[in-house]
Amino acid sequence: MNCTTRIAAALFAVALSPVALASTPVVNQGITEAEVLASQKAWCKALVDISAIHKRDGQAAAKALAEKVIDAAYGYQMGAVLFKPTLTTVPQTFRTTRDGALAYFVGGNAAFPKDTGFALKGWSKCQVANSAVFIAGGSATTMGNVNFTGPDGKVTSVDKTWGFVKDDKGALRIVVHHSSLPFAGA
User: What is the rounded CA–CA span in Å between residue 123 and residue 147?
Assistant: First the structure.
């Protein structure tokens, strides 16, 4: 065995050793249905929490929480997020930046003057009713309804599509979020 072969064999043996395997970080980019459902449930909880903190502590506290939620749930740190909120209008229909998403959820941004804060509407309950969940390895897409209960007990249902991927650390991130009111007929 020549020197190069011996070195390669030694490196291969080290790479397969339990110590090397235990210390090697592994990121599984595969997505499970349980992860998707947990993410949707957490999104709903966060929306209700933002509404509650707004009522109790005001807009600044709601904004601080919304910033944490957006940073934890969405993939803006990875690039543009394809976010089309329910109640937006031209020319600011799409919110591909973190600032645009934050303005939609809590308002208070002069660059988005029509945003009054969707998360500030006093939501007391939020439930996801998926029509389908499609998972293909490293991405997942859901489509269905999300039902929001307002402070008066009235339920508003929106059609929602979410797309998910994992970031480099293995955290599930929303990278597509399309929401609209159901078609009411012509």
Answer: 10
